[in-house]
Amino acid sequence: MSAIITKLLIIKDEIPVSTSGELDVVDITGEVGQLINRSGISDGMAHLFVAGATAALTTIEFEPGAVADLKQAVSRLVPMEMEYAHNARWGDGNGHSHVRAAMLGPDITVPVRNGSLLLGTWQQIILVEFDTKSRNRKIHLTAMGEGALKEV
Ligand code: ZN
Question: Which DSSP string corresponds to the chain?
């Protein structure tokens, strides 16, 4: 008689990211990929969440053209030069930052297959800083899935 035993693994980690200021885009694919490779998870999913109301996570082809296009699109959609109720209320001048971050979203889930992140060949995971100054960000990684298969 033989059985295949799998184990549910859950890992939690934090990825610190220092941003240089407004519209800084940081590629975090390498760090996330290393944490997943080392986690022992073969198949499951990785969830990433940035704690903060003026930053966002998404994916893009991380090359200067596409990154510049994203910045321009965000600036067209939610211009800085407008009146924001948040600024009138708090006077911190980052009303547009909050709206931009809310539209892109604070989290992303990536499938894990055979111990690696399932991403397209030209697809990278990025943090987008929307605040008006440099910030120290913390990205929370929660990954879960089957541990490596073991036959007994
Ligand atoms: Zn604010």
Answer: ---EE--EEEEEEEEEEE--STT-EEE-HHHHHHHHHHHTEEEEEEEEEE-STTEEEEEE--SHHHHHHHHHHHHHHS-SSS--HHHHHH--S-HHHHHHHHHH-SEEEEEEETTEE---TT-EEEEEE-SSS--EEEEEEEEEEEEPPEE-
Residue numbers of the domain that contains 141:
7-147
In this prediction the pTM is 0.93
| 132 alpha carbon – ligand 1 mean position (Å) | 9
Provide the CATH number for the domain around residue 60.
2.60.120.460
Residues with CB under 5 Å of ion ligand 1 are: 92, 94
Domains: count for the chain: 1
Question: How far, in Å, is the centroid of ligand 1 from the Cα of 78?
Answer: 15
Per-residue pLDDT of the chain (152 residues; tens, 9 = 90+): 677 778 899 999 999 999 999 999 999 999 999 999 999 999 999 999 999 999 999 999 999 999 999 999 999 999 999 999 999 999 999 999 999 999 999 999 999 999 999 999 999 999 999 999 999 999 999 999 999 665 65
